[in-house]
Design goal:
- This protein has 802 residues and is of the alpha/beta class.
- Helix content is 35%, strand content 17%.
- The chain has 25 helices and 28 strands.
- The strands form six sheets. An eight-stranded mixed beta sheet has the order 1-3-4-12-11-10-7-8, covered by helices on one side. Strands 13, 14, 15, 19 and 20 form a five-stranded parallel beta sheet that branches.
- The chain starts with a helix and ends with a helix.
- It binds adenosine-3'-5'-diphosphate.
- The site of adenosine-3'-5'-diphosphate has 17 residues, from helix 13, helix 21 and strand 27.
């Protein structure tokens, strides 16, 4: 029951689009899995539709879920063995979501009844001319208006037959055989649950046919009572980039401009206020043939018909300019051009050539955009990566909303039908149920990028969007709309508020990103080692010792945050990676520079692990864990030493035993004191993002008593070429009571006064031992799994528990 509730909560928290896409992918994955099981493994699987199955969690089972009744209309395969065509079950919560995909193979029974079900299957069929049953209660996005004429892909379809009223056809098609009588067969059927109380949707093929994909979307929506469902609203914005930029002979002429306006009016009949969004580079105005220059003039005479956005004046890539004022000057030229030609300058949207400077972020571009144009919205295909396109998302940086941009199959060079890569039919395929159709189906907001050249020549841009609209209106109930970019930006983050937070990746991990990243920047300026804390376990001592190694260089201290950068765990993250890099020296010899940083707040931060792994996927991670009971007490003392008023007011015992009724400040202090000691919880989070081989757990106690041995282990872990013998470079300082750096002349350099206390009285031991007991047991299991040695204090603790 608990897990059901947890799942429900989870489903509510996951953005709808994500869950939707997740399920969609899961199903496709299942088809592959199924095929694997069916064709490759062919092992016996138990029927999975047992009435008593507990299906609280979402899962997909490649299996033979519905046993066949032998003999009833069934035939045996040529080698006499029984094979069943039913291979996939996708379930989500008992009685809520059952979707079956039936894939026949050469050994499938040609005709069979599902055991215990009044349903007959006929397999291995070729189908054609598909139609949607207008009475199907399943339909939400799908519209039953027209027959899809022509063959359906594949010749291994399964169709369903039944007299029982529980089965309602969703999709129907004819068999492809010559003697076909025109009889319609059911290729997707909905089980209304009248037979056994369970509703299902059964697909007679995989999801390679676009109508199946469309119906699958509706099946998810219906069977989850609209919990996994997108609204019917779809917002579309079509950018036409490179206005005035195109090469002579490929630009728009007078007739093309007129066609653009006419098509816009035509599209407005179905998409209210639809307006093409034109991005201009003024430098190239009148740079075509005479006929094309007249086209430029006509475009400007229609200035109020369109929305406009500035491109770069000379179509240059912003990341090539390190200097913000050079960028601003260029923008000013374009702005003056706009003002001289009455082009609106207040729409707040811009895009950059080749996405340069948007992502990876070139901060100079953002600042210049804001200064010159008051830009508040832009778009890119590059975040987090170009591919897979379905994962593209938006984010907000420095007050600019960056929206995901979609591909529509048109590029600067695709200007003639006959030359379209793969032939003209390929563009039609993309539109009619293909990638472009699916983009609109699965994304509430789609911003498409096209180019001037797509509207001259064969006007493929006009062809594409007219055909797309026609297809969408024929096959779906989607309500198509448009909004100017600023409003679209607001809409996007209303729908996907969690996207606002960016997740910075290493620009050098993606070739496309690297190509549009400033040459003045280098990925060798990122740390390769993170010392993640937690506080009061000895991380500062370790930081000092690491800094003594000739191959390692630490970050510059931060004045703001007690020397630590705290990039991944604090608001500084939003300043971007350029800010972070400034904390590391410019690499002298990039191959040998090994930077590291220590921020004790990373260990128990909810977000640091994911952020660090996105930017530094290959980094090594070191955490120092000491007895959490002692850590909590040391932390409390540390707060008192720093005159924290709450710590001064309350005793340690008061702090750790504070109840829910205690003053809020006390509760906050309690959490800060105790939570970092939930080692297993925090370590698990890091393990979700880093392979266990990348993480080293250092025993805080050994670090105190035998730091040289710890340093030996760390050097091996980091794979450093120079092995330093720390027995020779560290010395125990009896006055300090700790190990310190040994200086020339025999003197020692120890950590400051605030590090290395001796506490006479270890208070509240019993209470805290109990408090951390379960967590410590979990930690020991985790360390065992990671193949790491258990710290001495943990072994001792576990012995006492027994
Ligand atoms: P106390 O100051 O309470 O004794 P951190 O740097 O992670 O905040 O941890 C501080 C703790 O590091 C100190 O806590 C001390 O116990 C421990 N420590 C380990 N080795 C040390 C060293 N060589 N010098 C000083 N403190 C050390």
């Amino acid at each position: 029951m608990l897990s059901v509730l947890r799942l429900r909560r989870l489903v509510r928290q996951v953005p709808l689009q994500t869950s939707f896409i997740f399920l969609f992918l899961l199903c496709i994955l299942s088809v592959f899995l199924s095929s694997y099981f069916l064709y490759a493994v062919k092992r016996k699987l138990e029927p999975s539709l047992a009435a008593g199955r507990s299906a609280d969690d979402l899962y997909v089972t490649p299996s033979r879920p519905l046993p066949f009744l032998s003999g009833v209309g069934g035939t045996l395969s040529s080698d006499g063995s029984r094979t069943d065509p039913v291979v996939l079950v996708l379930t989500w919560k008992k009685c809520v979501l059952y979707i079956f995909v039936f894939i026949a193979n050469e050994k499938s029974l040609l005709s069979a009844q599902l055991k215990g079900f009044p349903l007959f299957l006929h397999s291995n069929l070729g189908l054609k001319d598909c139609t949607v049953n207008p009475k199907s209660p399943l339909l939400h996005v799908t519209r039953a208006r027209q027959v899809f004429s022509g063959p359906l892909p594949g010749d291994d379809w399964t169709v369903f037959q039944s007299n029982h009223s529980t089965y309602e056809p969703v999709l129907l098609a004819k068999t492809r055989s010559a003697e076909s009588t025109g009889l319609m067969h059911t290729s997707v059927v909905q089980d209304l649950g009248l037979h056994d109380g369970i509703q299902r949707v059964l697909f007679g093929h995989n999801l390679s046919f676009w109508l199946h994909k469309l119906v699958f979307v509706d099946a998810l929506s219906f069977l989850t009572a609209k919990r996994l469902s997108l609204s019917l609203e779809r917002f579309i914005l079509v950018d036409i980039d490179d206005i005035f930029v195109g090469k002579e002979g490929t630009r728009m002429k007078v007739a093309d401009v007129k066609a653009l306006v006419e098509t816009q009016n035509e599209l407005r009949r179905s998409i209210p206020d639809f307006t093409f969004n034109l991005g201009f580079s003024g430098k190239f105005f009148h740079a075509g043939t005479d006929e094309e220059d007249r086209g430029d003039d006509l475009l400007l005479s229609y200035v109020d018909e369109f929305w406009w956005f500035p491109h770069m004046w000379s179509h240059m890539q912003p990341h090539r300019f390190h200097n913000q004022s050079v960028l601003a000057e260029q923008m000013m030229l374009n702005r003056r051009f706009a003002e001289d030609h009455s082009i609106p300058t207040h729409l707040g949207y811009a895009v950059a050539p080749h996405h340069s400077g948007v992502y990876p972020v070139h901060i100079q571009l953002y600042e210049a955009w804001k200064r010159v144009w008051d830009i508040r919205v832009t778009s890119t295909e590059e975040y987090p990566h170009l591919k897979p396109a379905r994962f593209r998302r938006g984010f907000i940086h420095r007050g600019i909303r960056v929206l995901p941009r979609q591909t529509c199959g048109l590029f600067t060079h695709t200007i003639f039908h006959k030359d379209y890569p793969g032939g003209p039919q390929e563009l039609e395929r993309i539109i009619d149920g293909g990638e472009l159709f699916l983009t609109v189906l699965l994304n509430p907001i789609s911003i498409f990028m096209t180019h001037l050249s797509n509207y001259g020549n064969d006007r493929l841009g006009l062809f594409t969007f007219k055909r797309l609209l026609n297809f969408l209106l024929t096959w779906t109930h989607l309500k198509l709309q448009t909004l100017p970019p600023l409003q679209l930006g607001n809409k996007y983050f209303q729908l996907f508020p969690s996207d606002a937070e960016p997740l910075w990746q290493d620009p050098c991990e993606d070739k496309r990103h690297k190509d549009i990243w400033s040459k003045e920047k280098t990925c060798d300026r990122f740390p390769k080692l993170l010392l993640i804390g937690p506080q009061k376990t000895g991380a500062m001592a370790l930081y000092l010792f690491l800094g003594m190694h000739p191959d390692l260089s630490s970050n510059y201290p931060s004045k703001e945050t007690f020397e630590e950068i705290q990039f991944f765990s604090s608001h500084s993250y939003h300043r971007g990676i350029d800010w972070y890099m400034e904390y590391f020296p410019l690499p002298s010899n990039s191959s040998s520079d090994y930077y590291f940083e220590k921020s004790a707040s990373y260990f128990d931060s909810d977000v640091a692990a994911a952020r660090a792994a996105a930017l530094l996927p290959r980094a090594r991670i070191i955490t120092v864990l000491s007895d959490p009971v002692e850590r909590a007490f040391a932390w409390y003392q540390h707060q008192r030493a720093h005159a924290d008023p709450v710590a001064l007011k309350y005793s340690f015992h008061d702090v750790i035993t504070a109840s829910h009724n205690a003053p809020v400040k006390l509760q906050v202090l309690q959490k800060r004191c105790l939570a970092p000691g939930w080692y297993a919880t925090h370590l698990s989070r890091w393990l979700e993002h880093y392979h266990h081989d990348q993480i080293l757990v250092v025993d805080g106690q050994t670090l105190k008593t035998d730091p040289a041995s710890v340093m030996e282990k760390i050097q091996t872990f980091l794979g450093l070429e120079n092995q330093v013998d720390y027995h020779k470079t560290l010395a125990f300082d009896p006055k300090k009571g700790f190990w310190c750096q040994l200086l020339d002349g025999g003197k020692t350099k120890c950590l400051g006064k605030s590090k290395g206390q001796r506490y006479p009285d270890k208070q509240s031991q019993v209470f805290l031992r109990n408090y951390y007991r379960d967590g410590n047991i979990q930690l020991s299991k985790l360390l065992y799994k990671m193949g790491q040695v258990l710290p001495g204090w943990l072994r001792e603790d576990l012995l006492n528990i027994r």
